[in-house]
Every structure is written in C-alpha cells, then in structure tokens.
Amino acid sequence: MRVKRIKTNLISFKDVRVRFSETDNLGIVWHGNYVKYFEDGREAFGREHNISYLDQKKNRIATPIIKLICDYKLPLHFGEIAKIETTYINTPAVKMIFQYKIINSEGKLVCQGETVQVFVDFNGNLHLKPPPFFEAWKFKKGLL
Amino acid sequence: MRVKRIKTNLISFKDVRVRFSETDNLGIVWHGNYVKYFEDGREAFGREHNISYLDQKKNRIATPIIKLICDYKLPLHFGEIAKIETTYINTPAVKMIFQYKIINSEGKLVCQGETVQVFVDFNGNLHLKPPPFFEAWKFKKGLL
Amino acid sequence: MRVKRIKTNLISFKDVRVRFSETDNLGIVWHGNYVKYFEDGREAFGREHNISYLDQKKNRIATPIIKLICDYKLPLHFGEIAKIETTYINTPAVKMIFQYKIINSEGKLVCQGETVQVFVDFNGNLHLKPPPFFEAWKFKKGLL
Amino acid sequence: MRVKRIKTNLISFKDVRVRFSETDNLGIVWHGNYVKYFEDGREAFGREHNISYLDQKKNRIATPIIKLICDYKLPLHFGEIAKIETTYINTPAVKMIFQYKIINSEGKLVCQGETVQVFVDFNGNLHLKPPPFFEAWKFKKGLL
User: Fold this and answer.
1) CB of D119 within 8 A of CB of D65?
2) Whole-prediction pTM value?
3) ipTM of this predicted complex?
C-alpha cells in the first residue's frame, strides 16, 4: 500500500539584532517587542515561501491576528543577534498558524510563541472557506 | 462551621485613547500594541492597589513576564477610547497572574489576555518562595 | 487709528504618564519616544480647538510632518507625569507649525521641539493654497 | 610648506527593511520611526568604526542625545528596503554629531537628519573635556 507522504510544515530562519530602543529599564528586550520579532520571522517566511502581506492586499484580503501566545525563557540584551525560527503549521481550518522559536547566539531558546490568523475581506467579513490564492499556495507547496 | 471567606481577585479599570502611532497600515491598532495596553492596565492596578514596579525595585526584585496570551475579537481604531479591565488572579504559586479585558466605547469586548510574572533578584535568580513584600501585600489585601 | 489685534497663537496642555515600555537601557525615556508625546500634545490640541486628524480625513486631506526638531534638556523616568504644552504658531505659509514644551513634575523644562506639517490630497499632491476647512478654522479662531 | 591633511568625516551604510508595525494609518512609515532608523545607522557606524555604546558603558559613560532634527522629503512604505547613510561630523566641541540620509530603492532621498550627543558619567554629570576613550578613538581614526 502506498502512503501519501505530505510535507506538513514549512520553516524559515531570520536573524535580528536587538535595537537599543527595544530594551527597557531592566536592560533587556521589553517583552512586548518580541511580537515585532515574530512579525519579522513571519515576513521572512512569506518572502522565502512566496506568501506575502502584499499578495493578500492584491487579493483584497487581510489576515488579522486573532491569537498570540508567547512564552519567555531567557532575556535578550542590547546588541545580541538572535535567530527567529518560523514554522508554518498546516491545518485544514481556514486559518494560518505560525509557531516561533527565538534562539540566542549561544543556541539557547529565549522565547517561543504562536500566532493564529484568519482571512477577512476589506469590509471586515470573515472568510469561512480558504481564499483561492491561499489554496493555490498550499497546493504549490504540497500542503493540500 | 465557619467558612473562611477570602476575596480571591482584585480588579482595576483604566481608560486609554488610541494613539495615531499605534495604528497600522490597515487603519487599526497593530496587534502588538495591545501588550502596551495590558501594561497600562497592570500599572493602573499597581497604583490603585499599592503594588508597584517601583516597590519591586526598592526591594531589589524584578518581576519579568514569563507568559503572554492575547485573544483578539474586534479591531480598535485611531481616536477610540477603550477601557482596560485588569484582574489580579490569586494563586498559591510564586507568581503574579493578571487577566485583561479591553472594552470599546460600545461596551464590546475587543480583546482579552493574560500575563504571568515571576520574581527574580537583580542577579537573575528565581525566587522559589514569595518575597516578603509580596506576602505582606497579599495579607493586607486579604489574599492569603 | 484702530489697530486690529489678532490672537496669533493658541495653546493646549496635556499630561502624560511615562510608560515602562517607553524607557530604555539607561532607565530613562528613549529619546525617540518624545515624538509620541508631541503627537499626544498635538492631538489634545486638536480636540480642544476643534481641528482633528479625522476632520482632515473627512476632507480627504492628509497633513504629513515635513520637519521635526527636538531639544533635550533633562531625562524623564518611568512613572513620572509630564505636562505637554502645545502651541500653534500662526503663519501665512500653507503649513501647520506646532511648538512643544515638555515640563516635569518639578516644573522644569525636559524637552522642547517643533513640527511642521503640510497639506496633501490623497494622491500625494501638495496643496499650494490653504484648504477651505483650514481657512474656515483659522477664521473661526481669529487667526486670519 | 606641508599642509596637514585630515580626514574630517567618516561614513557608514546600513540597509533597513520597513516593518509592518512601523507603518501607520496612512500606509507609510510613521514619522517617529525614522528615529529608530537613525539609531540603526548610528549603531552600524559604531560597529564598523569601533565606537560602540557598549564601549561607552564599559567606560562608565553615557552619550545621551541632546538634539534631533529630521527633514522628511518622501514617504516609505511597508516592505521597502531603504539605505541609511550615517556620517560622523568631526568637531572640536565635546560632542558627537551624526548626520543621516535615508535613501529609497530608487535612489531618492526620503529623509535627512542630525543628532548631537554629549558625554555624561553615570551620575549624570556632563563631561566638559572629551573622555580618554573618545580621544583615543579620534586619534586612531585620524580625526584629531
């Protein structure tokens, strides 16, 4: 019997250098700024795997974030270079799920998180079925 | 039989006005900026209930956030005034847990979330027992 | 001979409380965050004197900032409440000029600055004459 | 007669990609975020020319910004990659002056600006003479 092997997750890496303005009173990256790093990771993923915010806009679709989770393990300091590992989690739901790991220069896990996005049109109506551009992308990537 | 009645949660309210710089390309508050609103709510709670970041600093203790959750329900737009409801969730664990609801001017739930904080000394060592200032605060507030 | 006395400047005051996330590694407000305070001051001015960003949008006009100057005198710390004094500087040029003073709780000048804005339509074309809504506002305020 | 030729300015280049979170309601980079780009440029300069914030900290010196000027010429949009040109302006004054040009991908000038920094010790006292580490740096760079 042949088993259909599907690649269910895609991954992308992006380095970020901690900005001075991202640190706080305690000398470490302010916890809210990790949300920017997640976005950096997601955008780098989009560029690498050809699914971008701009594509969405062209298709008159927005993909607002409906859930954010962030678990903090270790601090990051000014000047450190961290690696963001962004993984697309394949799901039959009409959603885009990304998971993130932020790794410091010693290879230690600093933070991990997840975002969930849905599809809405420019009038704010939720898409209950995957928009065609997204189906096409999943097909191309072997995710269907 | 007497039952010990303890007030287990404390609550605080704070209004925020959406800044222009907090909105994004889609004309709504960028999702990462809700983390600032949670912090505004937590600080307002601290001022109202006498447990502040500055107290912590005086006691040479920092309270880093180890977990952040945020569920987004509706967008907020530039100029809107939103109410942040911050609730301290009492726990025997050596942690501070806050839950947040952000309510728009029509009384609708825009976002809800949670943060978890731990206690560390200025060398970064985790406190495994509640620091005395925190025990004193809980006692005073009827939370022990 | 009667001399026409015109009130040439308008002023507005707004308090801001320094957010934790606005401070940096040095424990003071990161210098770039004063730009947000200027915006807070400008928006408060607009609400008080009835000239708002939303009016501009309704008139299909945007008022991008073309110049920003900021002179820093003293630091601001987490938790401090500062007063922003925003002054509209009347000018015959087709511009909006605001000057700002940020005063700490001891009444000392922390920072002063200026912004200059022009009028553009939604295609990005510069208005060479004052848009009617702005002329009407100036007339009403005795600034013509 | 021999004329002493001194190299009076040093320059550094750094690319930045516009983050989604840096854009505003108008779909362009919010004007206050250019201050971050200037800082990115200044830090890149420091890494290239061996004069860093961390050196300053090691020497127990801080270099707060006392003046910021920014002239805006053109907007930047989400996803654009801009080049920051940072020039150190040599001066006999006990100051560090940097000038910035931000250039878009079409080679057009988007923004230019300047920052001025002074030297203070960790008690907040202004240095009236250049600190030794700074003199050493200038000497090494042929700026004395």
Assistant:
1) no
2) 0.92
3) 0.91
